[in-house]
Design a protein that fits this description.
alpha/beta; Metallo-beta-lactamase, Chain A; 8-stranded mixed beta sheet; 7-stranded mixed beta sheet; single chain; 260 residues; globular
């Protein structure tokens, strides 16, 4: 069984060049679990797979990570995905936030007769959940407010930080082996994101060798991070998750990015 991570988008909330950060765990080339689904994700997912996602993990309720769920709702209720649901995993503290941001309209369909969550199998989770026969780990990261954002790990394969300040304690706890570390990165730090200099200072050489930076603003930022010695994810990049000593690039798909 071959595990890979595909990035449909790898940018921050303002990046039209890189698209919103959205990754997909692939098993033998097929989508197993998507991670986040922002504004640009529906088009990128359709370009890559030609069908709707069957399962997603949402890290937090900022719209560049979850706004695509509205498009997915309409596709499931009145579009090509009628009669099926997308399984939606999220940490239990996020349920009220997602309800407030996405599901609180009195009539999500103008015709009436539908609730937002009808399109989804909502699965609130704690520290662990099972999907496709494997147990994933969920952890709170550091994103300006406690219990508002969460990362995801699959032991022996990967850790996906989510939007976060540096989290060396979680890398030690959940990515102490050969896991590939997909980590939020910005050129300058702020209360919600890790700065490049902080990543270089907080993580040791072994962790940095396994680290793939994402959530950057544009190609120039990607090149700056690469110039500092880190690997960077771009839209269409696929990384092999085989437990070897660090990430290796796999084949590259080319999902279309949205126009400005």
């Amino acid at each position: 069984m071959r595990d890979e991570m595909l990035f449909l988008g790898s940018g921050d909330s303002r990046s039209t060049e890189l698209g919103n950060a959205c990754a997909v765990l692939l098993r033998d080339g097929e989508p197993c679990l998507g991670i986040d689904y922002g504004y640009t994700a529906p088009r990128a997912w359709a370009e890559a797979f030609g069908r709707l996602p069957e399962a997603l993990f949402i890290s937090h309720a900022h719209l560049d990570h979850c706004a695509g769920l509205e498009s997915l709702f309409y596709a499931r209720m009145v579009g090509e995905g009628q009669g099926a649901q997308t399984r939606l995993y999220c940490a239990a503290p996020l349920v009220p936030l997602l309800q407030a941001r996405l599901a609180s309209l009195p009539e999500p369909l103008a015709e009436g007769g539908a609730n937002f969550w009808d399109a989804f199998q909502l699965v609130p989770v704690g520290e662990r959940f099972w999907h496709a026969g494997r147990q994933f780990r969920v952890f709170p990261n550091r994103h300006h407010a406690p219990q508002s954002s969460f990362g995801l790990a699959l032991p022996g394969r990967f850790l996906y930080s989510g939007d976060t300040r540096p989290i060396p304690e979680w890398l030690t706890a959940l990515a102490a082996g050969d896991e590939v570390i997909f980590h939020d990165c910005a050129l300058q730090p702020n209360p919600a994101h890790s700065g490049l200099d902080e990543i270089l200072a907080e993580y040791d050489a072994g962790q940095r060798a396994r680290l793939v930076a994402y959530h950057l603003g544009d190609e120039a930022a990607c090149q700056a991070v690469e110039g500092a010695g880190l690997r960077v994810a771009r839209p269409g990049d696929v990384f092999v998750l085989d437990g070897a000593a660090g990430p290796r690039e796999g084949r590259t798909l080319s999902p279309a990015l949205p126009e400005d």
